[in-house]
Specification:
The protein has one domain. It is built from two helices and no strands. Helix 1 packs antiparallel against helix 2. It starts with a helix and ends with a helix.
Length: 53
């Protein structure tokens, strides 16, 4: 079964989130990375909300 564009985007978001969280745990985040992490978390939650409608 092929992935939909939403599935692909969700996988990309999960990968980006995982990478930033690992970076945060190992050395902390600079201001830009911290803002990016918050933005990605918000987008991820919004995507999950849309998928459950």
């Amino acid at each position: 079964m092929a992935l939909t564009s939403t599935d692909r985007r969700k996988l990309m978001l999960e990968n980006d989130l995982h990478s930033l969280i690992m970076l945060e745990n190992s050395q902390g985040l600079n201001t830009y990375e911290s803002i990016l992490l918050k933005k990605l978390i918000k987008e991820y939650h919004e995507m999950n909300y849309e998928c459950t409608k």
